[in-house]
């Protein structure tokens, strides 16, 4: 793909917060074929804005209100109805870029939305490990027909009754910079989920607390195949299991605080 690639009637939007070390390569991967890149920033204090503007991106501020609302805002800022959503830690491969160019160059795509594979790349690596775990999300779509849900927690496009297409090539997901960064992200997510998820009975939460860590470890290490990642994979599975355990622990803590005090005199 060269710099003279004809740009498509396609907007790419990215939400960001202090991403100076990562967002540049994401914009670089797509700016030669999308008509615009729009970055929605929630208050960066590093050089994120400077980097984005230097690469030709439109840079806008919007106070953080949750994943869904932030991405809904991003959808509304795009000038084209067909949009490609990426996070600042996601980098489309050249094969994926070519696949999107081929799809969009033929005119209006047949379907209204397309999913993309996002295999995880460990810190310090350039590409995913063999049999890497991945997510498969709708990220290329017609915003007139499908949009991100308004959930503050869930980062999901609601497709309704529209058929979902599948793009074959992946975008690499550089999900975390280090173990400390991973634990920081998990702490943020568990706080968010504990405060927004449906309340459950205290006895049910206590039962789940006993099983969440071992079952979570099996899920991350075996089902999500971190077993192929050596020591890094083992540590990642432990961290993932801890995330699930502490999410339930935080929900239990909140439920106990909110329980009526039956010993108090009326």
Using brief descriptors, characterize the structure shown.
single chain; 266 residues; Spore Coat Polysaccharide Biosynthesis Protein SpsA, Chain A; eight-stranded mixed beta sheet; two-stranded antiparallel sheet; 7 helices; disordered C terminus
* CATH fold descriptor of the largest domain: Spore Coat Polysaccharide Biosynthesis Protein SpsA, Chain A
Terminal CA distance: 74 Å
Structural class: alpha/beta
CATH architecture of the largest domain: Alpha-Beta Complex
Separate helix tally: 7
Q: Which stretches are low in confidence, meaning pLDDT under 50 for 5 or more residues running?
A: 262-266
Q: Helical residue percent?
A: 40-55%
Question: How many separate structural domains?
Answer: 2
Oligomer state equals single chain
Annotated CATH homologous superfamily of the largest domain: Spore Coat Polysaccharide Biosynthesis Protein SpsA, Chain A
Q: Which CATH first-tier class of the largest domain would you pick?
A: Alpha Beta
Helix and strand pattern: EHEHEHEEHEEEEEHHH
Round the Cα radius of gyration to an integer and report it: 20 Å
Spatial shape: globular
Mean pLDDT: 92
Q: How much of the residues is beta strand, in percent?
A: 15-25%
Strand order of the largest sheet: 3-2-1-4-7-6-10-5
E-strand count = 10
Biggest β-sheet strands, sense, barrel: 8 strands, mixed
Summarize the structure.
By secondary structure, this protein is an alpha/beta fold. The chain has helices at 23-30, 48-54, 67-77, 94-105, 179-196, 202-223, 230-258; strands spanning 8-16, 34-41, 58-61, 82-87, 90-92, 113-119, 134-142, 147-148, 157-158, 164-173.
